[in-house]
Amino acid sequence: MQILTKIDEVRRELDKACQNGKKIGLVPTMGYLHEGHLSLVDTARQNADVVVMSIFVNPTQFGPNEDLARYPRDFARDEKLARERGVDYIFYPEVAAMYPEPYFTYIVTEQMAKVLCGVSRPIHFRGVTTIVAKLFNIIQPDVAVFGQKDAQQAIIIRQMVRDLNFPINIIVAPIVREPDGLAMSSRNVYLAPEERQQAPVIHRALVEAVRAVAQGQTNAGEIAEQIRRTILTTPLARIDYVEIVDDRTLLPVKIVAPGTFVAVAVYYGKTRLIDNISLKEREF
Amino acid sequence: MQILTKIDEVRRELDKACQNGKKIGLVPTMGYLHEGHLSLVDTARQNADVVVMSIFVNPTQFGPNEDLARYPRDFARDEKLARERGVDYIFYPEVAAMYPEPYFTYIVTEQMAKVLCGVSRPIHFRGVTTIVAKLFNIIQPDVAVFGQKDAQQAIIIRQMVRDLNFPINIIVAPIVREPDGLAMSSRNVYLAPEERQQAPVIHRALVEAVRAVAQGQTNAGEIAEQIRRTILTTPLARIDYVEIVDDRTLLPVKIVAPGTFVAVAVYYGKTRLIDNISLKEREF
Fold first, then answer.
1. Does the reported pTM lie above 0.95?
2. What does residue B221 show for φ and ψ, rounded to 5 degrees?
């Protein structure tokens, strides 16, 4: 495994791979790796010959009052985990290399970026789409793998790729959970022991919703209400949103239909956790 | 010369060229070709093995009260001119192929898009950067050639390429003028005979400014004032702006320095003409 920090280096290394007809798979991350990220490496490996992981805590996707400064970082540990999992290259650039002054250009996805997490994080998805497009142009992967945990992010990136005609295949890999159901997240380390103990209720509430739908419930308002009630049985929970939406447009739905999923964001203390689950799969 | 209308076709054709190690040069246009466009073909030819011209009147760069519907179009003539000049491929897509519904993604360049032409055309450059990024991703050129006539556009595209790390070399080719100095533009056909007769004053005013600087004038305010006075000697002229700015930031300058240029927009009747000239070259 090789660690590349300069954009020119990446171009030089990966041009070689490309000229040998090898397919390049990209796993973009902000580091502080957990099994969720590493499962994306496996997916990339299954779909490409060369696996590149980027590790970059992207400042433009954090709002002024968010956790950019205290976002957990441990490059030595990340390096070890990535190597053990079979990553070929880590791209680990500095902020000044990614956002040289003066910097002006952003990619916006209009209303898709303004719903769900976009309500409380108005510049978040603009930062995500911008850094992902930059990584696409630097690494020029054939395939890029994102986690289903960040459902809105994955949907927005798919839309960006379609709208801007990036010649890249986007794969979304399933959520990886702790044994008690809590979705893995680098931010879980923020949780105090009591918060950590209560947080798995989020997943339980989502599974309840799936069960209700299986039993014939189709009313999105009632499903959302039940999820809220279940989550609020844990006294430390503060709900940011529970939304039932379409997996392509992110618009709210009233009646469960193919493509409908629930997305939730819940605070425990200062820690904001997100999770989601499909209520009815699309048929292809 | 081959005419391609489908995105898939372009990918298939140009992948072949790319795999043969050939360099691809792109000349993006809105058609209704004149010698200005064709000079860009020559520049592309000098810098690439395969020359692709796109012809697409891009709806997203026209405001609601602008001339999208009446923008001049003549594909048969364009085809003939492009063929004679040695274009290898014309990419001539339909609007529905470039902007399939639902469409959400745009590229913005913040304050660079809000000055000069951006004041009267607030969504124009968002449309330009978006369509150019799409063409870059579809055609994947090594080199793309733009005209200096649209100076703000060229500067914004250079900035977008740098900011988003597109692996593409941008070349800006000089303005081509009619014998009387009027900058060539597809919109010149809109001009009534009297308007056409008066419009060359724009270039004369710019040349006067260059002469004043050569004689020691450095005060941007005085230079702009003199340009305005000269243009307004033609009774049909209505000035949109005369601005003296830096060629990287597009910010106004007070004292002429390396990189300073004048950009002007002038209406004759309903026709808005733009032009520009460098007052002091950068030294490299």
1. yes
2. -60, -45
